[in-house]
Task: inverse folding
């Protein structure tokens, strides 16, 4: 009973906030709605007794990734520009694709047979986090190592791109003699960055 | 009767946390006075003891200015967002064990298996309150303060998360009550994890935006930081949230590294269980009071960091140290076992 | 399990209700006399130069955000590992050291690249 109520409350809230995220005109507020939506998802994980997953959701998605998006939004110059177009010409194609994917998911869910998927023994292990840790150290030990390399690659790649951009802008600003053309270049480049 | 315990604990903890805030404000003003060779507040009541009531009345009766240029919904929502995480965290913090009706009951509102991680995750949400208030205020000082603070809190969350790994490794559990039990049966966490404790305490200062890490509201350069445009009760909300978080941080330091409700020698005194447990809870309270005093003491002793020093200290000193702490603990534990 | 979080939620609602009561009392008591000067942005008495104070932020904040995401994931991956450390000390130790070394290389790279520099 409690599970069902919590599921419907947070589920409906999550969908509403997700819609608000894509439909709101102000991108900063879109990010706010997204944080709320992710929080609702964390609450849904709690109703499934997946505490660790819920906490990871809060720590990584809300605490880190959405904050990163907020920083990215702060980099733009047109945060409050609510007149800009919200959708481009691909609106119809993408909504068709989304609807197709949605119907696929619904058909899979309706086919049922989820009872056996959750656990083989029919009940959750009492120590879920310990089970995750044991799995990481036995069956998924290679995956765990690969993840560490992947994180390193992501770090190096991200830094390479971000720092390179920084330098290019700096060079352009300082070595172009004609001041007005430098300013024009700078404006043009920042505009290109935000398109 | 047992079903009512969570509700009783809710009441007790709420009253404790909410009354500690005005008391703390008075203590902060008095102690800062003494540290600077002044007397502090003296006018309201004997030795200024009624000052918190005067402060509360002032907050209640001041005009609430909502400037034209703010983003109204976020502006109103941001102070609430400061208070929510503060209350959310208190919900999983154990403060002791009581034997009631022949059963040992943990004084905690909601039991969870991931206590310490939950506290870490929820307290990281405070950064949203600061970012929202900064952005919604549409004021240069607020924006600067808010962004600074967001980057600072993110940077110091990492060493904080890394510093507790050693403790988890020793105890083999994330439950705060298990961590306290472990310390009861052996030695306090600060003996096991001196480096971890040091890093945790330093990052706790940074996460609660206390001096020397209060770059968010560096009043000399940023007026008031992210709450420049706030007045009346909305400003009081920020205050309330900050002091609640400070108390929570003190309780967390005590639970993780100072033995929690463990009072030395009291277990060998053959007291009645309930008496012993009440003494233990009082012991926890005493440790927390000392830590709160420590927070104030540090505030009036150390000067503020410069922002680049702050970020360098976080990334180039604390994170490598915390990583080293994890590896050293792992080496020692692998050898011992 | 879920009852425990229900208690936490109830505590949150109860606490917020008390705060809300304080807000309502304040709303009933306080005066409201807005004037033009009160409603301008607070800039120590100066009249603000622009109506909007949003400006483009330093890309450095974004860089630190990126670093934070990666290291945060690392901390999270460590947690299940250190929890079962006592059951598998040898394997866990090797994994932990390997992971730490790999990420220390990342930190070192960021350091040398100057990404940790706040100018």
Result:
């Amino acid at each position: 009973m409690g599970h069902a109520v919590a599921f419907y409350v947070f589920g409906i809230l999550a969908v509403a906030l997700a819609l608000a995220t894509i439909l709101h005109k102000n991108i900063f507020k879109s990010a706010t709605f997204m944080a709320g939506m992710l929080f609702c998802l964390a609450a849904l994980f709690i109703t499934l007794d997946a505490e660790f997953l819920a906490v990871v959701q809060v720590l990584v998605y809300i605490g880190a990734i959405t904050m990163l998006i907020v920083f990215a939004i702060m980099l733009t110059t047109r945060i409050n520009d609510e007149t800009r177009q919200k959708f481009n010409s691909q609106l119809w194609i993408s909504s068709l694709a989304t609807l197709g994917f949605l119907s696929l998911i619904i058909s899979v869910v309706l086919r049922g047979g989820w009872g056996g998927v959750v656990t083989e023994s029919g009940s959750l292990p009492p120590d879920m986090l310990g089970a995750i840790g044991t799995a990481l150290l036995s069956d998924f030990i290679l995956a765990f190592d690969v993840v560490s390399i992947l994180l390193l690659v992501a770090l190096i790649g991200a830094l390479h791109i971000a720092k390179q951009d920084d330098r290019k802008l700096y060079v352009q600003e300082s070595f172009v003699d004609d001041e007005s053309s430098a300013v024009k270049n700078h404006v043009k480049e920042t505009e290109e960055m935000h398109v | 009767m047992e079903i009512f315990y969570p509700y009783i604990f809710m009441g007790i903890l709420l009253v404790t946390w909410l009354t500690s805030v005005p008391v703390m404000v008075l203590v902060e003003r008095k102690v800062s006075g003494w540290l600077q060779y002044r007397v502090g507040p003296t006018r309201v009541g004997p030795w200024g003891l009624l000052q918190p009531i005067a402060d509360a009345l002032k907050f209640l009766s001041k005009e609430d200015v909502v400037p034209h240029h703010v983003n109204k919904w976020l502006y109103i929502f941001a102070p609430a967002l400061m208070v929510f995480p503060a209350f959310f965290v208190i919900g999983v913090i154990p403060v002791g064990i009581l034997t009631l009706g022949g059963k040992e009951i943990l004084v905690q509102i909601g039991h969870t298996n991931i206590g310490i991680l939950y506290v870490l995750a929820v307290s990281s949400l405070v950064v949203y309150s600061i970012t929202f208030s900064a952005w919604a205020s549409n004021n240069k000082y607020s924006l600067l303060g808010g962004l600074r603070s967001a980057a600072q809190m993110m940077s110091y969350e990492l060493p904080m998360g890394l510093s507790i790994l050693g403790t988890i490794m020793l105890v083999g559990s994330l439950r705060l009550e298990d961590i306290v039990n472990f310390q009861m049966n052996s030695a306090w966490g600060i003996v096991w994890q001196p480096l971890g404790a040091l890093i945790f305490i330093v990052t706790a200062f940074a996460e609660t935006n206390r001096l020397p890490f209060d770059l968010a509201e560096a009043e000399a350069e940023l007026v008031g930081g992210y709450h420049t445009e706030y007045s009346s009760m909305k400003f009081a909300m920020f205050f309330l949230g900050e002091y609640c978080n400070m108390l929570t941080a003190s309780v967390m330091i005590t639970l993780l590294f100072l033995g929690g409700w463990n009072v030395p020698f009291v277990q060998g005194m053959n007291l009645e269980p309930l008496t012993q447990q009440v003494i233990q809870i009082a012991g926890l309270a005493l440790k927390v009071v000392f830590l709160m005093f420590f927070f104030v003491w540090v505030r009036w002793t150390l000067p503020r960091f410069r922002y680049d020093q702050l970020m360098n200290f976080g990334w180039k000193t604390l994170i490598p140290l915390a990583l080293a702490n994890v590896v050293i603990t792992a080496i020692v534990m692998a050898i011992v076992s | 399990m879920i009852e425990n979080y229900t208690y936490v939620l109830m505590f949150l609602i109860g606490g917020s209700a008390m705060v809300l009561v304080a807000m309502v009392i304040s709303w009933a008591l306080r005066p409201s006399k807005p004037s033009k000067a009160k409603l301008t942005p607070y800039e120590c008495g100066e009249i603000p130069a622009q109506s909007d104070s949003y400006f483009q932020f330093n890309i450095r904040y974004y860089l630190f955000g990126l670093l934070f995401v990666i290291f945060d994931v690392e901390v999270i991956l460590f947690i299940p590992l250190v929890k079962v450390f006592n059951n598998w000390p040898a394997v866990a130790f090797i994994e932990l050291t390997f992971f730490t070394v790999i990420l220390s290389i990342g930190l070192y790279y960021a350091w040398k690249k100057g990404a940790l520099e706040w100018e």
